[in-house]
Amino acid sequence: MTQIELAKKNKSSELIKWIAENEGLPLNNILAHLRQGSAVILKNRVHKIKRPCAIGKGLRVKVNANIGTSTKKTKLSEELEKLKVAIKFGADTVMDLSVGGDLKKIRRQILKNSDIPVGTVPIYEAAVNAQNKKGSFLKMTEAEILDVFQEQAKDGVDFFTVHAGITQKGLDLLKKNKRILDIVSRGGAILANWMIYHRKENPLFKYFDYILDIAYKYDIVLSLGDSLRPGSILDATDKIQLFELKILGDLTTRARKRNVQVMVEGPGHVPLSQIAKNVSLEKKICHNAPFYVLGPLVTDVASGYDHISSAIGGAVAAYFGADFLCYVTPSEHLRHPSIEDVREGVIASRIAAHSADIAKGLKSAIKWDREISFARKKRDWKKQINLSIDPVKAKLLRGLFKRKPIDVCTMCGNYCSIKLIEECLRV
Amino acid sequence: MTQIELAKKNKSSELIKWIAENEGLPLNNILAHLRQGSAVILKNRVHKIKRPCAIGKGLRVKVNANIGTSTKKTKLSEELEKLKVAIKFGADTVMDLSVGGDLKKIRRQILKNSDIPVGTVPIYEAAVNAQNKKGSFLKMTEAEILDVFQEQAKDGVDFFTVHAGITQKGLDLLKKNKRILDIVSRGGAILANWMIYHRKENPLFKYFDYILDIAYKYDIVLSLGDSLRPGSILDATDKIQLFELKILGDLTTRARKRNVQVMVEGPGHVPLSQIAKNVSLEKKICHNAPFYVLGPLVTDVASGYDHISSAIGGAVAAYFGADFLCYVTPSEHLRHPSIEDVREGVIASRIAAHSADIAKGLKSAIKWDREISFARKKRDWKKQINLSIDPVKAKLLRGLFKRKPIDVCTMCGNYCSIKLIEECLRV
Description:
2 copies of one chain form a homodimer.
Chain A: H1 3-8, H2 14-23, H3 27-36, E1 39-42, E2 53-56, E3 62-67, H4 76-88, E4 93-96, H5 103-113, E5 118-120, H6 122-134, H7 142-155, E6 159-162, H8 168-176, H9 186-198, H10 203-206, H11 208-218, E7 221-224, H12 239-257, E8 262-266, H13 272-285, E9 291-294, H14 306-319, E10 324-326, H15 339-359, H16 363-377, H17 381-386, H18 391-400, H19 417-426
Parallel strand pairs in A: 3-4, 3-10, 4-5, 5-6, 6-7, 7-8, 8-9, 9-10
Antiparallel strand pairs in A: 1-2
Helix pairs in contact in A: 2-3, 4-5, 4-15, 6-7, 7-11, 13-14, 14-15
């Protein structure tokens, strides 16, 4: 039985108990959300991981780090190092988005070396296989696509992005309506090309039931991809985006009926003023399925600093109810991310997620801030550094300018307000 | 006459006309806001600068960069380099917060080399002078404090932070009510110490009229400092903070009556859920005076990345009506900022300010995003880089992995969604 199926029968599992304990919530609370589909647990039955994770209502907001090769950057060792860095700096999940090199080997190595859930986008491998074997990704067959899902499931992938929401009708709408950037989803663009070339319906939509069978068997969470998400803040929340969202809502219902756990992916590029609306639309149209957002970026001009643009959007989205933040690195829109980019992306998203947890009143989140604030009051630098979101960087910055031990920092020096006020209030 | 005085008489000036043109707004609009005090123009009569700036309702959100020496870091050359970097990367104003070295010389050099408005906190110099000459900052006299205001005004400082809102009553409240970090404002801590030591009222409060005389003479904008701002998200929006805010509201009225332009400073450390409230309280209690916020930081745990925590808070604050963002650098809470920190702080705050401008519908802001999005669609890399918020970094990141000219980036390589979709929609 899948976790949602157990919950529907009001049965628990070791996994559900572990999640409840880990989140500091009553078991019944977790069961209720799993049952309703407002929470999911990422863990393939056959994947051995130490830290599976739950995503959804009332839970700590989670952070995903995308790693994986590009056609231009194919080193496995670098991607494994990114995995290590993502885990070290606190990512809750990773996605292997590889499209270059030996995809099977890379995926299996990532699955083996990860103690957190791993997601993939199977359509990438189907496309790359066809490109390698037949000279064009357009030549992948429906059967070949489904075989990739089957194989990746067996390998232990914990969640799949499934771009099942882009249909022929969606493409018609795209052609009829003006937007600046038509499709900025890689999976969406691959499928759109295939659909136009073959004049056929999206195979992920057509064979959605088959994908549900696989997901059910391994208890894989389906993450319904938003192929038609906006790629510019000027395209945000347009007809095309919302048309696809309705299809994702229908697919959510179908998955739940079949006892498959499901979450929904969201934009992308969204002005601050439209973020709350985007979250509430997803919750309404997709029946409270956990919302997994990419950013959102609140401006298109921040190339080189898109992790910051994304942290702004992610914090606001999570505050309004988004459950899962996909990081964006400083290199977004410019290049394949470096190892350092992964670290910066993870930390920026964690700041966003944590600030939303605080704002929503999550006790464990507030406790963390209380502890570091008391350490700050006492000028206990060791504790302040250990409690920082990235102790390695905090220690480095503090250390650089510290020639001898001082109980203040070099910012205010002798005029440290905390020290001054402590002394005078003591009088 | 000061700019507010002119506006009250419905008269314009070359400066007001320049501001209207620069903001792309009708002159009457600017005049109305200056008259009501909901906008101010930062420019000391005697300070020659190319780019004075207006702050307030309907205007582009502005960004300030704090520079200046510490008692532990006193190099003038480094601070002048920070000034250059702050201007290069787009700060609208700088504040010289020096407390180490030859303060007069540093200030005069910064004023001379800046083509944007310069602010200071005169109480710092008064304290440092007393410390140097008498062995304790507590020994500064009221007359000496006021002399510093006089001298800095004559030197051409465009705006002063005046911590006039912390009074004996405020200190009583601070002693009676629990908060984690009592005072985190350097100026506030200096004054509180002085007030407790001398058992006297805050001289900036007591002699506020005298300070108004100086400000009027040079048309200096007073920025009413919030000495009792929270230093932890757990202290946010407490009684103590709001008590001081009411005093700042009264001082705002007094300043306007005397035709002195005024803005109000705000926190600090504020959870996402309390930012909108903080902005609306300031607007209400301080009669729509422009709101100048420090951050706000949305969590206390982001040492090393406080520019990101601050960008999240700043974007949300500006979206809800804050007018002026003081940057926070990655080194906040850890050390005196480096030159690179200044750059990162400025860019992070500019992203926050710009994202709020977009969300509020500012046409010039949206135009920028439209242009870069079209460049992205065309894969016009030169234009994309030039239109990035920091073209130097964007160029560096793009260049690092580009061995030969390619029209995609190394992120998706051959599977660039923009290129793929362009090709198939063309068919």
